[in-house]
Sequence to fold (330 residues):
Amino acid sequence: MPPAYRLPFERPIFELEDKLAVLEAKTDPDLATRDSIRQLRVELVRLKRETFEKLDAWETVLVARHPDRPHSSDYLELIFDEFIELHGDRSFGDDRSILTGFAKLEDRRVMFIGQQKGRTFKEREATLNGSPHPEGYRKARLRMEMAAKYRIPIVCFIDTPGAHPGVGAEERGQAYQIALNLREMSRVATPIVCVVIGEGGSGGALGIGIGDHIAMLQHTYYSVISPEGCAGILWKDGKHKDKAARALKFTSRDLLRLGVVDEIVSEPSGGAHRDHRQTAVLLKSSLLRNLKDLAGLPLDRLLDRRYQKFRRIGVFEELGVQAPAEAPGV
Fold:
């Protein structure tokens, strides 16, 4: 069933789907109608493929933010079994923007940590649209330590516009807690697989984003700042967000080429928001394959490999500049 919310570049797809729906609604279609239906179906597949293969950076952001896109809670139902949620950070409270708990992935027990936006207004208000507080990151870190204690692999699903910037979050040490998570995740003694399933915004994403294998769903972004925030800083106007999106190089293709992520998980034709179940099948296959590969590594090798992985990001080259010769007589 097509999503109710329509992105601007999806208009030709919806127009074709509307025509197809009218023809398919006929109770006794003649030969010409059946032929038209077949042609429209072929054209629809082609149009979806071409449209979503040619998305620019800003259009990718729109798809990543689509309200019908599957969230962490959806994947918990479609991919995992026997999820037992663990609440609280033993210090302040339970941040609903991060879900944590034991889950079962076929015959493998994992610790699940996922950022959650919510669908209804009430859910989005409770999660601040997936923007965690310090207690959310503290909760995630405690679950990671528990997973390491029992030698359970960790699966992190990233989907946040960024950590919450409110006064209360800052008073409770937002920046410190994210920095602490970065340090501790770099040395958690168990395999970690991270997947960007929607938005990967700033330190809010990095707070659960250090892992042995980093994957992105095809139409997602992972960035140090939102395109609107970047446009506001560089051009003093949010209307340049599309220009900022291109400059940030934050799409899955860009980051795979730059070596920031290890894998792009394909999405169904037309994006994950059109077919949650097929997206879950593709994502589950990736998780099973990578957890199996990581399980075979000795612990010291795993930690060294994780350290080297992040040390290699951001390689640059310095050009030696020769100092000008001194003027004669000086």
